[in-house]
Amino acid sequence: MDQNIKAFLRVLDASDNSTGGGTASSIAGAMAAGLAAMVARLSMGKKGLAPREHYEKIAARAEAIAVRLFNGGREDAAAFDRVSSAYKLPQVTDEDKVSRSLEIQKAMVHAAEVPLSNAGNCKTVLDLCRQLQEKYNTNAKSDLECAGYLAEAGLKGCLANVRINLAYIKDETVCRELKKKMDLMNE
Prior knowledge:
Oligomer: single chain
CATH architecture: Up-down Bundle
């Protein structure tokens, strides 16, 4: 948890030039999931709404995703740190250069996979918000709207981070596979 808080604080630190949109987007998704869980809990047992089990299921799923996305923010920051470290590897010998290049490519693929995973979780939060919109405690209408906005921002931000990293990945097969997964999230 402490590492997650540190990643969050790095996003807020204007002097930190390494932790940015991917971490922020994941944290936005985590907040969205937390709000969706809250709306589900506030809808439990209300007259004229779905059975309690329906909301319990949504709340449990949203709570689990909130944790994954909060962890995902830290993982995104760590992925960028890994890329930075790879670029700092020595380039003295030809062997160094090959090794550095391989490490950069591994780090770049990882730096694309992490926000892609976070984007998938944000998409799931959006789906949960849509399920709640069918029937929920309307006293929490603004909370559900905020959850939807945050989940959408998280999804778009995470996908933007995947796209930026794709430009640095040399393996066309990996790029195609990542793009295919991104396309599924835009549906």
